[in-house]
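Many introductory courses stop at the sequence. We go one step further.
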Amino acid sequence: MAVVVGMVSSAFSVFAQNETAPGPYIVPFAADGQPDQANRVAMAAVADIYEARDVDLSAGFAFLGISASGTDSTYYSLASWAVSPVPVGWPCPVAVSGPENYIHVSPGRYDISFYSRDYTGGAYHFFMLRKSAEPDYADYPAKIFLMGQSGSKVVLPAVDEGIYRAVVIPPSVFRISYEPRYDIPAFIYGPVSGMDETLVSGVPVNIAYGEGVHAAFTYSGRPMEDGDAAEMVTVSIVPGKEYVVVGADPSTGMTGVAVGGEFDRPQYYDLSGCRVACEGDVHGIFLMRTVSGVRKVCL
């Protein structure tokens, strides 16, 4: 899949703010965790970003900023709260680090970009990793976060390529992000309407990367038996089929609210939403779908 990111013009504040200051360097790291300063690669300014192409990495790398005088230097690596390993083809957050820390990657040759964006509350620095031989390739993130306003997070694991699903208690107000942050638009899948959306059980809402990034989703839930407010939530970021839905999954046809009289017998699903045969000596926690709805049961 391809991810299109619009770069913005902003000074990269880790370097001296004058024309004589060098750009950042990429310092390769070996598998033993040692930086290879002798083979560091200077990044070139291209339009609004710094860039280096066809960089050979065996285990990982870090960014190195050097002052105009050459007397001060600082390492920058993946932010401590960020998802690791980093997803190829997506903006990833940068933070100050020690020389012992580096960004782990699979061996290969990469094009690497480094840039800044100004958002409300401050400037943020990012990098993007692309495969040199496949510049349009992008990983699907390993998980998606439903991020609450207070920083609370609910994790949806991948159940298929670009499909994320779990039985969870959604935050009453949340944004959809591939990094655990509510407040950074670079990571957000928002409603294509650009406005706050109230989710209704069984009704998908279209989303898109980089759209509606300041909007939020609300969900008040629905009465569940035994006080269990958990719901099945599905997020799809498959190109052309990008949506979020609570209580229903258009990709499988499984619904969280059944139509009366639809089933003669209960149907069972695992917590990822995949149908299972709960017959015989089967134990565990499952979703049981009946004419009255869906609830968690322990068998």
